[in-house]
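cron nightly-structures :: item 1 of 1
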Amino acid sequence: MRIILVVPGGVDRCGDRRVVPALITLIGRLSRRHDVQVIALNQEPAPGEWPLAGAHIHNIGLGRTRRRAVAKIRALHRAAPVHVVHSIWSGSCGLVAAVAAGTLRLPCLIHLAGGELAALHDIHYGGRLTWRGKAREALVLRAATVLTAASAPMIEHLARLGLEARRVPLGVDLDIWTPREPVPRMPGSRARLLHVASLNRVKDQGTLLRAMSLLEAAGLDFELEVIGEDTLQGEIHRLAAQLRLNHRVRFLGFETQRELRLRVAAAHVLVHSSRHEAGPLVMLEAAATGVPTVGTAVGHIAEWAPEAAIAVPVGDAESLAHAIRGILEDEGLRMRIAEAAWRRAVQEDGDYTAYRFEDLYREVCEH
């Protein structure tokens, strides 16, 4: 089967930076059995091509990007028949996939994996902020042959819009994230917390740091490592200093998957404070490593709670601090949640994701 995958980026030629790990896993799994051609809209400013994970990457670059992306898909179809066009994320990627598939009379899958349905006006985040965005999403989502989304909250949101979708989580590569059952915490040891996300408005590290300040005031002995690129020019670092958390919080910047695995394996709890998530993917990586998540009720966190995660209201630092303290002071609870999360992550891994999409490819091609 010849498959076109349309993505915004996340497929850098180096393979370990400026990539989306779950996307690379999916591409690699599909490429074992299919001819996978990846259309990357803006991985690099200039057009280019390179091999990655067994697939062929076609970077479109800046300047009439969507029009040239559609033309590229049409050219690939002329060279050898394409069976299905699949966009990972909606937005511009979905529009390209829908237009190209429509003109070629091919089936089109759209997978929602981010903020396509969000409209957080105070931080200018989401695909449905403006009437243009709403119109684009309405067009794209209704043009899809099949819609999929990463988590139950996304499926429910689509249902409220009158759209049916299938749940397909973007699972982790267990060849990289070797499954490890939860490890008991040593009695009396300092609590090791981990947060993995770019520093930005939607990830809401301000709420996270205020929760840390409450834990500090309560006398909890902990350390927090923060992994992720800073997009806020030091704002979160300054807030940590204002809250007198410099001795508790370490900002480590971006790390590769190899580096991150070591951080996750050493953590007792992954903490997350996002205002919106389809995933987060790092929660699945942590779960596969035996580390439970406490976070805001978004994406997989809301979906897995209360059995396999602890979820609190978005933006509620007090509830977040209370939940983190609760799981750290009850080792039985921490282990039960970690074990339930571990089972889910191992069951719905990267192979599971690829097989689910392949089933859908066959379904739409047989109609």
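cron nightly-structures :: done
The longest strand covers residues 2-7.
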